[in-house]
Design a protein that fits this description.
mainly alpha; disordered N terminus
Length: about 425
C-alpha cells in the first residue's frame, strides 16, 4: 500500500494485508502516509484515511456526505438494499438525518438504557446456566451471539419465536457466501417481507416497544398516513417518518445493534484471554468494567471502518487532494492505534486514562446505540467473569479465525472452557 500525498493517485492496491494482519498493516500505512488509495470492500477504488487527527476531523466534516447520491456515477457499488431498507441514518445528511435521529434518540438515552440492565443481566445468566454443566462452550454461538439478539428484539418488540430467523439473516448479511450470491437477495427479500408484516401487525395491535413508538411517530392518532403524505408514503415534512424510513430504522436498529455487540463482546473476551494480567486486574476490581469496555472498543473495535463518505467538493485530507464524489473510508481501527494519540497503543491497558477513541464515531453521526452497546458489553463480561473464574481458551490460539471482511472485526467462534 502506498502513500499518495506526494505522488498523486496510484492504482488501487489490494486490502489482503488488512484481512490477514490488520493492525500491523495499519501501522505500516500510518508510518508511510495519512491517506492511501486502495481497492475498497466493493472492489472499487477508495481513499483510506488512517491517522487519528485526520480521521477525527473527517468524521465531523460536513463536506463529507453519507448520501450515496454524492458518489461519482459508476464509482461505487456498495451494499445493495431496496429503498424500504435503505432510507436509514447511514445514508442521510442533515436535515433528514437531524429529523430522523431526533425521533429515535430518546429510545437510547442513558436513563432508558440503564432501565434495561436488570433484564440484560437476567438473559446473560440464563445463557450461562445453559452452558455451565457442559464445562465448555463456543462463546460466540452460545453467548455473544444470543444476548444482543434477545436484547434488541425485546427493545423492538419482535416475538421470541422469530429470533432464530433474525440471527440467520444477519449472519448471512455480515458474511455473504460468494459461491451463492442469490442468498443475499433472498435474505434481503425475507427481511423486508418480515418487517413489512410486523409493522402492519403492530400498527393494528401496538405494544410497549420501540417499534410501536416509531409507528406512532409515523402515523396520525387514527393510524392513517399523515396529512399531506405522498402516494409512496414519503413524509410531508416536520417531525414525521416516511414509511420507508420507518422500515429502514427498524432494520438498522436490529442489524447494527446485533452485529456490533456480538463482535465487541467476543473481541473483548479474547483480548482478556490474551492478556491474563489484565484479566486478573479486572477480576480484582470489577467496578472498572465500564472503563475497561472503552479500552476494548479502542483496542479492537467491531467496526474497523466508519460508514463510507463522499466529498461534496474537492478537498484535502492529511495534505492529500481527494476529488468530489470519490469514496472515502475512515479507519477508526487504525486511528485508535495511532501512537501520536494513544501512547503504547498496541498494548491493552485497562487502566489507561482513556478518552477520545473513535470506535463509536464522532460528530453528528456518533453511534446512536452507544449507551446500549456499552451497557450490554459490561453486563455480558461481568456475568461471564463472575460465573467462570477459570475461563480459558479450549483450542490453540492460532486456530481462531476472524470474519474475512474489512467491514467488521469479529471472531467466527471462540471455544472456551472453565
Amino acid at each position: 500500500m502506498q502513500n499518495t500525498a506526494e505522488t498523486g493517485p496510484a492504482d488501487p492496491v489490494d486490502v489482503t494485508p488488512l484481512l490477514d494482519d490488520p493492525y500491523a498493516a495499519y501501522a505500516a500505512l500510518r508510518a508511510s502516509g495519512p491517506v492511501h488509495r486502495i481497492a475498497g470492500p466493493d472492489g472499487q477504488p477508495a481513499w483510506l484515511v488512517t491517522r487519528y487527527d485526520d480521521v477525527r476531523a473527517a468524521l465531523a466534516d460536513p463536506r463529507l456526505s453519507l448520501d450515496k447520491r454524492h458518489a461519482t456515477p459508476g464509482s461505487y457499488r456498495g451494499f445493495a438494499l431496496p429503498p424500504a431498507l435503505d432510507a436509514n441514518l447511514l445514508n442521510m445528511d442533515p436535515p433528514d438525518h437531524t429529523r430522523v435521529r431526533r425521533l429515535v434518540v430518546r429510545a437510547f438515552t442513558p436513563g432508558r438504557v440503564e432501565a434495561l440492565r436488570a433484564s440484560v443481566r437476567r438473559v446473560a445468566d440464563e445463557l450461562l446456566d445453559t452452558v455451565e454443566a457442559a464445562g465448555r462452550a463456543d462463546l460466540i454461538a452460545d453467548y455473544a451471539g444470543h444476548l444482543p439478539i434477545v436484547v434488541i428484539c425485546d427493545l423492538l418488540g419482535i416475538p421470541r419465536a422469530d429470533r432464530r430467523d433474525f440471527r440467520a439473516w444477519t449472519d448471512r448479511l455480515i458474511t455473504p457466501d460468494p459461491s451463492r450470491p442469490e442468498l443475499m437477495k433472498q435474505t434481503v427479500g425475507e427481511l423486508l417481507a418480515y418487517f413489512t408484516g410486523l409493522i402492519a401487525t403492530k400498527r393494528a395491535h401496538p405494544g410497549d416497544d420501540l417499534l410501536s413508538e416509531l409507528i406512532a411517530v409515523r402515523d396520525t392518532p387514527d393510524g392513517s398516513a399523515p396529512e399531506g403524505a405522498a402516494p409512496d408514503g414519503s413524509a410531508p415534512g416536520g417531525d414525521r417518518l416516511s414509511e420507508d424510513e420507518l422500515t429502514s430504522l427498524a432494520f438498522l436498529i436490529l442489524f447494527a445493534g446485533y452485529e456490533n455487540t456480538v463482535h465487541l463482546i467476543g473481541n473483548a473476551v479474547l483480548a482478556l484471554l490474551d492478556h491474563p494480567e489484565q484479566l486478573q486486574a479486572l477480576r480484582r476490581n470489577p467496578a472498572e468494567l465500564p472503563n475497561a469496555v472503552e479500552e476494548f472498543m479502542r483496542f479492537d473495535p467491531p467496526a474497523p471502518l466508519a460508514i463510507r463518505r463522499f466529498p461534496r467538493e474537492d478537498l484535502e485530507i492529511g495534505g492529500v487532494r481527494v476529488p468530489a464524489g470519490d469514496c472515502v473510508l475512515l479507519s477508526v481501527a487504525s486511528a485508535n492505534r495511532d501512537e501520536a494519540r494513544f501512547p503504547a497503543a498496541d498494548r491493552l491497558d485497562l487502566a489507561r486514562g482513556l478518552s477520545g477513541h473513535l470506535a463509536l464515531g464522532h460528530g453528528i453521526h456518533y453511534c446512536l446505540g452507544a449507551p446500549l452497546a456499552r451497557m450490554e458489553t459490561a453486563v455480558a463480561l461481568g456475568a461471564l467473569l463472575e460465573r467462570f473464574p477459570g475461563l480459558r481458551l479450549d483450542v490453540p490460539r492460532e486456530s481462531l479465525t476472524h470474519r474475512r471482511t474489512v467491514r467488521a472485526r469479529g471472531l467466527i467462534s471462540l471455544p472456551v472452557t472453565w
